[in-house]
Amino acid sequence: FLMERKTRVKINRKEVMLAKLRKICSCNPKKLKNFVMDFLPVLRWLPKYQCKEYIWGDVMSGLVIGIILVPQAIAYSLLAGLKPIYSLYTSFFANIIYFLMGTSRHVSVGIFSLISLMVGQVVDRELLLAGFDLNDDAPPALRDGSLQNDSQSNTTAFNLTIAGMNAECGKECYAIGIATALTFVAGVYQVLMGIFRLGFVSMYLSESVLDGFATGASLTILTAQVKYLIGIKLPRSQGHGMLVITWINIFRNISQANLCDVITSAICIVVLVTAKELGDRYKHKLKFPLPTELVVIVVATLVSHYGKLNEMYASSVSGAIPTGFIPPKVPHFNLMLRVAVDALPLAIVSFVFTVSLSEMCAKKYAYTIRANQEMFAVGFCNIIPSFFHSFATSAALAKTLVKTSTGCQTQVSGVISAMVVLLVLLFLAPLFYSLQKCVLACIIIVSLRGALRKFQDVPARYHVNKVDTLVWVITMSASALISTEIGLLVGIIFSMLCIIVRTQRPRTTLLGQIQDTSFYEDDLEYENLSSVPKVKIFRFEAPLYYANRNYFLKSLYRLTNLDPNLEAARRKKYEKKEKQRLKKGDHTTANGLGIGETTLQLIPKQIDFQALVVDCSSISFLDTTGVNTLKEILKDYKNLNISVLLACCNPSVIDSLKRGGYFGKDFGSMEEMLFYSIHNAVQFAKDQK
């Protein structure tokens, strides 16, 4: 039987588009109010803030995150190739802006290791092209907290005509100029993606790609910090293969290791790892995480200051961190042009990590977020701070988990964290002058434990899905051995190729009937299935389109043990020989058969079926090539007196077949060619003569 399809109401797309445009372009007080409240979600939830219920959790989580954020911000400045003051600016502004614009109550937005690494790679490349020395182990600045002295002590002035900047600018000035330009462009990309609703781009970053990218980048981060651990003065490696080149340089210069830094690093790593492991083991008993990083930084700074480790043992220290805020400055347009391409992967990675963490928290605590607004929030967390000497930000998993575990209820906790950072910016920053860089490197390396532990999950991942494991390995290897940006691109392309290959060579099988039922299953996978006499049931588990057409035909011919084209050619050849014999007056065939028996001889012995049922339940769509392929087998098998029946087609496949003329002009034969179940098709084939 044929089910009657619903008649679709024709939609005038022009009128719909005009109605949408009128709605968008119209303006009234109510709509303006909704627009402002949607753009600044804080205006919706802050008036409803339940102070007695939320304030304690928000204050506690804000203080804890602020205490963790300060040492991490100072440490991650090494990754970005910038001074610690800029990391503190970034952490401060990101928390304030996300408080105003974010829709997630729990996510922690700020400085993030992977984003800092991507920024640092661009900064290093541009510094190298501008002629600066990448050796960041220059003598420390004076203790007066002057940013100008800090910049001038790093390198001599350089006239930046290469970037269209006519003013004299030192290495530090040029580095933060590159970082702010990169951040501004990345933020613009994110806002444009939000305007044009391009959030679907994140769908192409699968979990395997993101995990592989994070692990590969973590190996790069770890490698970049080794020279600080052992006190070797090496320039920051740049370009493809940085990981291998850095390790070669480390082993070549291992004899120059600073014993003071090695001992300090060993002690700090032991203390940090032990504290982290104890914290993980007893996290249910602790009301808030132990501020181990802050304790280590305070103790290490005191020891370095009073032990005069820099003067006596030449241990590299952070140097002066100025207090207060530097006047805002517009990012240079010419620098934006230089980093426009680099900003695209930075924008995508920043957005994807933020949205994925926001959705995770929203699902856990039963509320909703708006992904498009998250795009705007992250975009403006990059655009606005870029005017205040800050660099790119993103949500960070570790700080988000700490935030939720310490009782966070709303983004008020982000404001508290920003106040802690502000306190450091205004008063406490100069106290970190004597802090050794090897201590900061230890904090960075220990923070990578989660990403590096992904190696332990490889056997379980392989057991679940071998293809996803291969995607993870390829992405991780490319990110570590080539570069992070290329690694991300390789991961996306390879994962998409895996999907294409899966559809190009899908599983194909013949089906058998489950005894005494009307159900049919894979004959190779299940026991005790009975074959249907004179009927072959073929299943193709993928869409049928131009890329897998040949595989479809080859699989069909192989499983049915019949190529209709070869069989038709054999028959024509045989008929031609018979006609030649008849012309010569021989009334018997080559096999000694009479003319009347020739027809029987033409029927090949290997054809043991009279109907072919194609199970279309796994065919999600057909393109023009797919429709023509089905029309081709319909014609070829018909020439051998074998009927082709389609079963379990979805409506879109049926529509494609109708448009392609598969059922004829008036669809009159549709009832004899299309069936809603395999069993119906089999019963019809059995009833045929």
Automatic annotation (TrEMBL):
One Gene Ontology cellular component? apical plasma membrane
Alphabetical UniProt keywords: Cell membrane, Glycoprotein, Membrane, Phosphoprotein, Transmembrane, Transmembrane helix, Transport
Reaction(s) catalysed by this chain, per the record, are: oxalate(out) + 2 chloride(in) = oxalate(in) + 2 chloride(out); iodide(in) + chloride(out) = iodide(out) + chloride(in); oxalate(in) + sulfate(out) = oxalate(out) + sulfate(in); bromide(in) + chloride(out) = bromide(out) + chloride(in)
Segments traversing the membrane = 54-78, 107-123, 174-196, 208-230, 250-274, 335-355, 376-398, 410-428, 472-501
| Domain STAS intervals | 525-685
Subcellular location(s): the record lists: Apical cell membrane
**Cross-referenced InterPro entries:** S04_transporter_CS, SLC26A/SulP_dom, SLC26A/SulP_fam, STAS_dom, STAS_dom_sf
> What's an example of a GO molecular-function annotation for this chain?
secondary active sulfate transmembrane transporter activity
Entry membrane topology: Multi-pass membrane protein
Gene3D superfamilies tied to this protein: STAS domain
Sorted alphabetically, which Pfam families does this protein's record hold? Answer: STAS (PF01740), Sulfate_transp (PF00916)
Q: Which NCBIfam families match?
A: sulP
The family this protein is said to belong to = Belongs to the SLC26A/SulP transporter (TC 2.A.53) family.
Record-linked PANTHER family: SULFATE TRANSPORTER (PTHR11814)
This chain's protein is named Sulfate transporter
Q: Which organism is it from?
A: Oceanites oceanicus
Taxonomy of the source species: Eukaryota, Metazoa, Chordata, Craniata, Vertebrata
Which gene specifies this protein's sequence? Slc26a1
